[in-house]
Amino acid sequence: MKFGRIAAAEAEGAVNVHGLRLPGLALKKGAVIDRRTVEALGAAGIENLVVARLEPGDVGENEAATLIAAAIAGNDVQVERAFTGRVNLRAEASGLLVVDRAGVDAFNHIDEAVTLATLPAFHPVDVGTMVATVKIIPFAVPARAMERIRDTFRPMVRVAPYRLDRVAVICTKLPGFAEKVVSATLRTTAARLSSAGARIVSEESVRHDEMEVASALRRASASGAQIALVFGASAIADRADVIPAAIEAVGGRVEHFGMPVDPGNLLLLGRIGSMPVLGAPGCARSPKENGFDWVLRRLLAGLDVTSPDIMSMGVGGLLMEIPSRPQPREKTSAGKDGVGVVVLAAGRGTRMPQSYKLTATIGGEALVRRVVRAALASRQRPVVVVTGHEAEQVRQALSGLDIKFVHNPDFAEGLSTSLKAGIMALQPEAAGAVVMLADMPKVGAPLVDRLAEALAPETGGLIAVPVADGRRGNPVAWSRRLFPELIALSGDIGARHLIAENPEAVVEVPVEGDAAFVDVDTREQLEALEIHEIAAGADVDARAALDAMKAEDA
């Protein structure tokens, strides 16, 4: 191929290199220049331009890209039409992309001007996902280069459709093991399987005992399950541990234990007859991607997973940090005494139109002041109050208290904006935050301290919630390792979904009474709380305050 600047009058049959737009003439890059275009260039006063002219044996960019794409496309891969020297290849089925890595590398080493890019090997794809692209850099491939390229022609990318769709789940339990963990594990696993079109066909919970797990595996195999997943109440520590021993007890074999993927190190792969068995690492209870996903997806696609396959997963195996990891890679210098308190006091209180809710009084004291005083009575510091609606009223109600104010100008956009403002206002060394709602006047300092003390990042306890009769309330304590997720929230939502997404990180703090569940939204609720406290003798001045409040409304 010849490339260079020539006289416009001699350009007929050449390929235009640089786009050109003139009145009445639009000459695109890559367009073949015809006689009419030559005349138009002359009429426009264009004397020369840069072109490429193919020589005998050269293969044009679109033809070359089409030939290559057709040759390297394997099963369930569609080849699209060429344009500007590019051909995209797309998946025709949902599954995993299987790539001939050596073949792709060899192809890309033939000529710098001929390129093939793919998604990572074993990447999950849906119908229509672009899996690869062939791009010819110049306007043609020389004949000699094309000959060498033809020598590499073979399928290099294919889709392995998901084939197995029946999965058994076995969860083991030890004394004190929360049933909620099992429920959350089943929900997470069902969602993980649904993306591959698979489902749970049997599930049961048994004691963390070799013979009970063995019996459950027999039942799983008899149920018609094609894969069995075993979630241990305790992580697998050795090939002789409960779960691998149970696999061998029913005539199965342990094929591999451990993997160079983090999170996911403690994965176990076994087989009972034709049924693969995965001993799940603890991180598999989280919906976030981990090494368990890498092996499970291959099995669902009907691909063999061998011990060497797993041992080869180290490159790229250092995945994103899962917040609940018991031993974080990065240590924080703050201890439990560095936990702060964030009081969210930016809401509009629209359900109490008579007066602003947070500055309405109980026993002569503003609702927000009562909540903040409880925070200050705890051992946690600093106490940050987030203001928004009626910010000046809130500031006046909290006059004289040793707190830090931060104003949220975006409070109308939702609760998440106030939470973000409060978390960002904590001192950099804060080890966590207890997030309090300014309309929950029954929460006391002891509960704030218990929640802060329940945080245990070193053992994976990153969220502490008060619980009574299986019901979760407020406040909630958060380790700083979840601060990035809290700051990333948006809209009028709190952080409840983060609790659901990190079930293994939740520490439940048992509480008595209703303090963690009572908030004040209406005047009627405020009056009811006042009456309750009068009856309980909590405030000798409360009756007079209630009478004054009713008189004010009248």
Automatic annotation (TrEMBL):
UniProt key word Phosphoprotein: no
Question: Under what name is this protein listed?
Answer: NTP transferase domain-containing protein
The keyword Magnesium is annotated on this UniProt entry: yes
The entry lists its GO molecular-function terms as: nucleotidyltransferase activity
- Its source organism is Ancylobacter pratisalsi
Provide this UniProt record's keywords sorted from A to Z.
Magnesium, Transferase
Taxonomic superkingdom: Bacteria
Boundaries of every MoaB/Mog domain copy: 168-301
Family annotation (Pfam families):
NTP_transf_3 (PF12804)
